[in-house]
Amino acid sequence: MAPKKGSAAKSAKPASKPAEDDYIVFSNKPGPVKPKKEATEPGPPRPDARKIIGGASWTGKLPVNLLSEHCQRERWNKPEYSMKRVTGGAYGSAVTLSKTEPKTGETTTLPPFELQPAQADLANQESALEARHFAATYALFRVASMKNIHMTLPPTYRDLWKGPFQEFKKEDVREKREWKYDADPFAAEAKRKEIRIASEKRKAEQAKKLAAAEKAGFETPQLQAQSNRIWSRAPRIELGPNLRSEIESLIRQYDTWSSSSASKSGSEEMIVTALKPRGFRESHIREAAQYCNSLQDAIDWLLIHVPEDDLPKWALPPNYSAGVTLASGNVVNDAKIQRLMRGGFSQNICSQALKDNQGSESAALEALLSSLVPRQSPVSPATEELAAEEAWSEELMALEAVYGESFKLSSPESCSIQVEPVSGSQVTLHFTKPSRGYPGFAIPLLTVDAPGLPAYIRLSATKNALEYAWDVLVGDAMIYSLVEHVQASLGGIIENPGKLVDLEIHTARLGLSELHLGRNGQERRVRKSQPQRRRLLKDPRSSKEIREAWAARQASPAQEKMTAARQKLPAWSKAEAVVQAVKSHQVTLITGDTGSGKSTQSVQFILDEAIRSGQGSTVNILCTQPRRVAALALSDRVAEERCSVEGDEVGFIIKGASKISSKTKITFMTTGVLLRRLQLAESVQVALEGISHVFVDEVHERSLDTDFLLALLKSAMPKLGSLKIVLMSATVDPQTFIDYFGGEKKVARVHIEGRTFPVDDYFLDDVLKLTGRATVTGSRHVADEDDGEEEGDEAADSAMGKAIQKLGRGINYDLIASLVEMIDMELGSDPGAILIFLPGSMEIDRCLRTVSQQVPNTHALPLHASLQPWQQKKAFPPAPRGQRKVICATNVAETSVTIPDIVAVIDTGRVKETRYDVVSSMVRLQEGWASRAACKQRRGRAGRVQAGTCYKLFTRNVEASSMQPQSEPEVKRVPLEQLCLNVINTTTPAHGDVASFLGSMISPPDSSAVASALTTLRRIGALERDGDDDNVGAQRLTGLGSCMAAIPADLRCAKLIIYGTLFGCLDACLTIAAMLSTSKSPFTSGPPPGARAGGATARRNTFLSRNNLTATHGNDDGDLLVDRAAFDEWLARRRSTPARELRAWTDANNLSAGNLREIDSTRGILLDALKDAGLVDRSFSSSDAATLYPNLAEIRLPEKKYTQSVNDDSGAGGYLSFFSKVATSKTFVRGLTVCREYGVLLFAGGGGGMTGERRWRQVVDVVRRLVELNGQDV
């Protein structure tokens, strides 16, 4: 150690180094001898573990010692500690306990004691020593939480014991993990092991039973229902025979049956081989195989089409007799239906035919037979009708003479003839005279009554006989010939009854007169309107006219003044370099420091050069921005610099608003708007037709939309040789983008130096000193003696550490207010605004309140993405006279947005980002440290127009070790369902499958996240799937998926409004979708001024009664319906109420006028999207369960409920649909609506999760096939 100043008298050093032979070394080790190290002076005493862990005054035991003593008392082995380094340079440790049996010598080792993943950040410590003692404290809590050991712990670990650890225990107990806190963890682990072994044994036995059941014949669902405890809680659903028959008829009529577009080749024999042992007729199996690709589809087809009396026994409940016993109370009507059913028609269709023909049995029978064998019979003249009466009577007399006792005359217009039994079944043929034209223009009405034969065989025999009569016998007496034909053909029909689909009747109306009229008319088909292509507004002016107008404007005083201001920007000196780079390369990368003017000037350089060179009419520039506020601010600024009105030469397009005209040459838009344009067009080439330049700004942010846009532009570059692509960013790794677009030869680069205004940095310790929150004595600045200086350094560091600890872990708003007050005092009467960066809108609101209360004369304003454009623009004008403008902003103010009068930046260094967990399908909103690149951008806001100051509310060590160099690309931390759907809808087959295209992005997402997204798309019906497996299927959009892709909203919101359109409830669905997609509720979070807080729920509930929701839906139908009722009432009042009265009404009812306006604007956007997609209305009912699936939660009565929801009554519904699930400190679901069981079954998913109780397989398959209709032919 080098001597300190002034210490020469205290210690003398040898003048020269001693020779090596002065040393005497005793050693048997060969080799050179090392000299002794020179003795050094003792340094300052190092703090021991007790002081570091417990503090300077702690004299008690430490956590590691307490855990070791506890293990000794319990006769356990010594604890083992594992150590690891985590992100940011911190340390994490875990304890492993073990126990050795003294008799057997067997050692049992427990898994390491670690926190849950969501809690793991708490265990990360700055040093390995602290991490070790944290792990010891947690392990001690796990085995001794029921004791008061925390009283013997140091203060920091005592607080952990009483605070977070207790919360973790409560959560674990709620989640049935109370075994973690057993006093004897080895006994608890042994018990869990026994339970696990027993469970595995039961599963193995169950698997054997299921395998045996498969061989025996489809008993699997019943065995699963008996063995699985989950089914004991599942709600029971029953379908009445009438409803089931109606649904079966719909399925037979509309279902396409094939669950995928795979080829049917080779599948028929496989299906026949698999299903013949299960009791189906081979002819039926082969018919099913003509329509179905998979075994499950074939089984479904058979269960729907084969009549009950010919189904295998396993498909019906025990002791079930096929056929229906009527008990309607109308004996006469029931008797008619029974007679009509003798021919094989179902009870429902017979009942409908009787009803449609006003109770006439003969007319109903004729209608049924006309539907079975549709033939157009000409109207016979009156003279023919008189002759028919005589011919019918004569024929009946002849038949009685021929058949004797086998003939029975039921009425003058009907008779029955019993023929020889077939296959052991009695056969009776019933004949009835038709309503007109027999025998010259019609045939008799025939029913083949054979109770021993299946219904479809009787129908087949009837159809065969009627077709024979129409083809051969019309014009003469034919009953005798028909009897002979039936007797001759019935045996063959039993062997080969023909196709089941040929015996189906799909007519919606069975009135005889309507059937005759329908056959003479023509069917009308409704053409589905096609989405309209949006055409670009073409400038009618020539290049010469544009140049003349531009030149005239350049000579104006206003333009000369603005040009002079532009020339002061650093970008002006690079104008020629930018123009030449863009001209000579298809891709150009422009990087520039904050304040260089690249965002406002680069687009103008290109436009001005084109106008000067006489090519103004060919230029059309698009410039994308990641946020609305940036697009609006840049459009306004560039229009001002060009002395033009916004919407003329310069305009913008954002979601919900636009200002452009045919003269617009520079259009600023959000990245999502351009992606939408690409998606709606036939191809990327068509969408960019007429566009000369695409500027993509802020590429360094690596947003999902930006990365997707770059991938699309790169793929279209070979076919768009004239399109120029310009990438812009303030902080970017240029090589990443250069390599992505082909290397240095294909990509030009221009760098623009930033302004030279200096920005002074102050870190947290400096801020504490400036604000007087860290009073340090014995500072190094006042110490004269060396020893006193060392003591001063230690005292200063200790005092600063304590001051930082007092601030706590979160954001200290009082410190921010103190800093704002200090800055305001330093500025005095000088102008200048203060910009504060905060992680979210909630933090912004709190900071605004604190600053406004503690600092007088402040003009405090928010700035974040959730604000309306007019609210965001309030941040740009100067503050009123005598006030200091303070802007509290999220990271939207990092880039592109320039607030010209900012002189000081307060950076909390925090940011909120979403993280998607593929395994749990949960989006986690996590607050963490911003990247160093983002903090550099924030710092630069203070030096845009003059020298500034940046106050960083974090230490230098945090910046160096905890902050990442760059932000992680968004594609790696968000759900990918919307992206995958857009890729499939936007790209062509040449790009390959979704995974291949996403793999070509600049930062490819994780393959498991892509697979999970595709699975979700199949589950919601947007993609085709193979069989019941959501993980398998072609990457082709269904009809529903195509419509969903055409709507700029979350997938579930898109599905909601599509169903609303189809089912005739579009208005309500638009409102709900707008609220969900904007994440806005009509209600404010707190009570109105002067109102009591507890009345918020009561005010919400008033909308239930005022809109009749209680009577129609019950009081438990969810937050969405209440929000919708509030919006509808506001909309109605807005049309007839003055603005002042409307504002008073919204305040009194806890309603947010801004949120209501944004919801209304979003409704208009969604409605326009529906018009573009060409969807049409149909009158049905809707269900929220259809659209929010797979976001469904089963309702189990909790111990506590969140009282802000209107779902106070536990309700009769078994499930809740929810829009989103987000994990912060806990897991929250938002946008709740109660779902009944039928809504879940019919609209949620692909029919999985059902079992047939008492072997009633038809109910299961009816529901599953009805579900399949959701995604087809929308």
User: Which architecture of the largest domain per CATH?
Assistant: 3-Layer(aba) Sandwich
Q: How would you name the CATH homologous superfamily of the largest domain?
A: P-loop containing nucleotide triphosphate hydrolases
Report the span from N to C terminus: 82 Å
- Percent helix among the residues? 40-55%
CATH topology-level fold name of the largest domain? Rossmann fold
Main sheet specs: 8 strands, mixed
Mean pLDDT: 77
Structural class: alpha/beta
- Overall geometric form: globular
Rg: 41 Å
**Low-confidence residue ranges:** 1-27, 216-227, 518-535, 776-789, 1109-1116, 1176-1190, 1199-1212, 1246-1256, 1270-1274
Total count of helical runs of at least 4 residues: 48
CATH class category name of the largest domain: Alpha Beta
**Number of folding domains?**
6
Adjacency order of strands in the biggest sheet: 12-11-13-10-14-15-9-16
- How many β strands by DSSP? 29
The portion of residues forming beta strands comes to 5-15%
